[in-house]
Amino acid sequence: MDEALQLAIEMSEQNWANFRNDLKDLTADEIQWRPLPQANNINAIMKHLRVAEEWYVAGIEHGEHSPYQDVASVEQLTATIPLDFEQNLKDLEALHHRFVAAVRSTTLAALRQQTFLSQVILGQGPRPAHTLLLREMTHLATHRGQIRTIRNLYRTTRGERGLFLPDNPLFAE
User: Fold this and answer.
1) What is the pLDDT of residues 46-103, one digit of tens each?
2) 126 phi, psi to nearest 5 deg
3) 143-151: long-range contacts at Cβ-Cβ below 8 A with a sequence spacing of 24 or more?
4) In this structure, are residues 150 and 42 in contact, taking their beta carbons and an 8 Å threshold?
């Protein structure tokens, strides 16, 4: 396996392990809690992650022949996924491992030759498939930050210490 691809896979696996660690001991209240009425909760974020991961898997496995070719197909996929945190987490994990397995079974040169439809929602055209791994990792890390923030806010609004970096000296007053 290409060293660069191996490194990227290792980074993806560490990103996944960190994400799973940040979900430890979630309560039902935390999963449903919103810092504002119009804000996403962890349940909604998990559904979004699960839908997006299916799109990533389709992109890496089928390239431009993905079943998600346009906004309507992505909306249809989204509509079929229930707002069920536990099931979506289970499905997300299976899809993530499937994505990594697909990357592991190819080469960087092959991924550079393959294309996928980038951002069908925004109407962008084909992109090289090797960029999907970065996109998948970045997407998960971005929402990991949201979940960590929601979990900290949930606790601090109840007079408790945040779980993540509660004494960060970079935020000293």
Assistant:
1) 999 999 999 889 888 887 667 666 777 778 888 999 999 999 999 999 999 999 999 9
2) -65, 145
3) 143/45, 143/48, 143/49, 144/15, 144/18, 144/19, 144/22, 146/40, 146/45, 147/22, 147/23, 147/42, 147/45, 148/22, 150/30, 150/33, 150/35, 150/41, 150/42, 150/45, 151/22, 151/26, 151/30, 151/42
4) yes
What pLDDT score does 13 carry?
96
3-class secondary structure, 63:
helix
- Tell me which H or E stretch contains 163: none
Q: What is the pLDDT of residue 77?
A: 83
- The domains located in the chain, with CATH, are 3-162 (1.20.120.450)
Q: What is the mean pLDDT of the chain?
A: 87
pLDDT surpasses 70 at 173: no
Q: Is the pLDDT of residue 16 over 70?
A: yes
Q: Which residues on neighbouring strands pair with residue 117, listed in sequence order?
A: 126
Instruction: Please tell me the distance from the alpha carbon of residue 166 to that of residue 118, in angstroms, as a whole number.
Output: 38
Helix %, strand %, coil % of the chain (to 5):
65, 5, 30
